[in-house]
Amino acid sequence: MLDTPIIIVNFKLYSQASGKNAIALAKHLEEAALESGKNVAIAVNSLDFDNVKREVNIPVLLQHVDAVGFGAHTGRINLELAKEHGVDGILINHSERRLKISDIEYLVSKAKELGIKTIVCTNNPRVSGAIAALEPNFIAMEPPELIGGDISVSKARPEAITETIEVVKRVKDVPVLVGAGVKSGEDVRKAIELGAKGVLVASGITKAKNPKEATLDLISGLV
Amino acid sequence: MLDTPIIIVNFKLYSQASGKNAIALAKHLEEAALESGKNVAIAVNSLDFDNVKREVNIPVLLQHVDAVGFGAHTGRINLELAKEHGVDGILINHSERRLKISDIEYLVSKAKELGIKTIVCTNNPRVSGAIAALEPNFIAMEPPELIGGDISVSKARPEAITETIEVVKRVKDVPVLVGAGVKSGEDVRKAIELGAKGVLVASGITKAKNPKEATLDLISGLV
Amino acid sequence: MLDTPIIIVNFKLYSQASGKNAIALAKHLEEAALESGKNVAIAVNSLDFDNVKREVNIPVLLQHVDAVGFGAHTGRINLELAKEHGVDGILINHSERRLKISDIEYLVSKAKELGIKTIVCTNNPRVSGAIAALEPNFIAMEPPELIGGDISVSKARPEAITETIEVVKRVKDVPVLVGAGVKSGEDVRKAIELGAKGVLVASGITKAKNPKEATLDLISGLV
Amino acid sequence: MLDTPIIIVNFKLYSQASGKNAIALAKHLEEAALESGKNVAIAVNSLDFDNVKREVNIPVLLQHVDAVGFGAHTGRINLELAKEHGVDGILINHSERRLKISDIEYLVSKAKELGIKTIVCTNNPRVSGAIAALEPNFIAMEPPELIGGDISVSKARPEAITETIEVVKRVKDVPVLVGAGVKSGEDVRKAIELGAKGVLVASGITKAKNPKEATLDLISGLV
């Protein structure tokens, strides 16, 4: 279930998290979830989705879905089709796949109608406030300059976390996740202390020598 | 001044509103503003901006500015440069130039810092609510399916106007303009009655046989 | 095999050609291919790809692949991953998914390296000539104004077909397919007579009451 | 005139080359052109275009023009309007403003019809070959990884220059300019020796302490 507190691992298109590696990695993360009894979800690419979904019992999200219905759309997938494939939720507006505001609104509204959970990524507190008005299930705030880096948002920009939570709460009480540079249980613990309901991570897990251990370390911060 | 109630005329890239025609049209609209004593502003393309700005004393907006600072950006213009050229305000996120939410936030924040007024276009009540959280100077809601058509938003979708105003007010009290298909003083009067602070029009004026008369007709609805 | 003459059916995101319907439709087309002994290939969306590929023995293409390698790319798929999934070929630059020229070049070059066939879509003879210089396996010329319509390119724009073939041949002898509005064996026969090596179709098959019969009708024109 | 050999200076959106600074810089470059008797052209942003064009007698290009005609296009400019403003030529598909192949073809064809010169930027030899088939007035090849850097294309990738010229010549004999990292007369001389007909530069001139001297230095390589 997409319940908080939660660790969401974005597989991106890392070679360590694509194709056969995506299935292996997903199983390691499922083990970490089972052993710890905590919530762990993963976001995979569309081509690998079915293969991964079939193999694990943790929530599997799509990293992107297009804001279209059925029809003459070449090279696109939509929410209705994602639902038929059993998707648990979707990432929307990730830093590496920014969307127009009209498309974000369409996706959040349509997903709610279809019973699909939505995590809308944002780049700062003000954008988070705007997104809160759309009432997605989660907002994941990631300062772009820290994504993929070595210093976590918890350490580098703690005030961005608290400000995001305040600004969001003023508009609508949507749970806030944070991300960017998150690598350790300490980073997670700090984020939770600041009011976050979980973290969105990528390279910290996908590139770890032992992804299961790395995930258990992150989970240790979910206090 | 960009005061309400207001008629904002988007020149788009209509031949009747570009190049020398842009200057002539701007003067007709200035006359209508002077005769009526009401607020009329115009939004022109970047190439015509200086020529039009030099010739009239009504507010001249840019139809689009890119969300970048100074630097290695080819084929872009920014707010700092627009300010040097004396811009009064900018349209952001028009239906024909939709932007990413992160870019809308950047433009609204930077424009406020520079003293440039912002009109953010939206396509429905929910998107309007999200934009309200960014606190632009105006929100201009236009149902895309009615833009350029013969039936005005006031007649075809009055409930979209009232709903937009309600949703926006709940987040932040930003003045709401409406647009799409607006052609007559009656359309404007209806919009104002529903709570709008003005209208955003284009073909209704740019393609009118007598643009000054057509503008005076719209103005008659600004009661 | 992607041999000529060929009928390529683009499933787009039509409800009749997505999810479970994609598999059923693919089987009908496979039957038509087997009965006629002619070349029929299909292009499906990324989420349905594995399911369809597993069920049929005709070539299955992807409708779009992103021009990136492995790495920090959220919501993207690439050629290396498509190859691991057993893709036979890819559509590039379809009218509903136009690409930058630098991305088209990357995809054609990388696909050649990986042994994946490429069909680059173009909108007119001149663009076809430019694409020919990149030496994809096929060029599929479709006048945008005829796509999804009732009049076929063979009838409405025969001169565009002959001109495309001439312009392409002058640069590099890449086989030319044509598409847009193709609905009957007569349309196909005409295209072949004009020098095309096959057709790219979509709604003519995906929306047919009896897709197998409709495909056999098209095939009858592959003389 | 846009004759070869030529130095084209892209002002980009550098603060040193925007607004009032654009006019001052343009005059320095005009002096360098007059003193040396060589061809120097400049590419400026749309907002500054008229101001710069009015002040100098060297060719003034636009950095980007949209691939649309007149009509309901907000925040766009087109070739017809650029012609009315007296444009001498346009950059198309710069690395910082990449375009779809269908838009490049439209712009090159329409510009030819209107008597506007075209310089299409490309990122490698193969893309250059494709563009040659469209017969623009010039192709400007710039390896993206060297743009804005300290090592010139002449030194870092001489083989990319010769290969581009060969590939282009095989398709159509369009004059080839090169760019990226060009900073000295020596860089220019090397490019010309390799067969280039000129260079496209930006930061090397716009950020120079003495832009006129820096341009005269570049010009010294136009042997």
Written overview of the protein:
The structure is a homotetramer of 223-residue chains. Chain A is α/β, with parallel strands linked by helices and 223 residues long. Chain A has a single domain (6-219), classed as Aldolase class I (TIM Barrel, Alpha-Beta Barrel), CATH 3.20.20.70. The first copy, chain A, is 41% helix and 16% strand. Chain A has an 8-stranded parallel β-barrel, surrounded by 7 helices. In chain A, β2 (39-44), α2 (49-55) and β3 form a beta-alpha-beta unit. The model of chain A has no long low-confidence stretch (mean pLDDT 95). Chains in contact: A-B, A-C, B-D, C-D. The C-D interface holds C 93, 98-102, 104-105, 109, 122-124, 126-127, 129-134, 167, 171 and D 93, 98-102, 104-105, 109, 122-124, 126-127, 129-134, 167, 171.
What's this model, at a glance?
The structure is a homotetramer of 223-residue chains. Chain A is 41% helix and 16% strand.
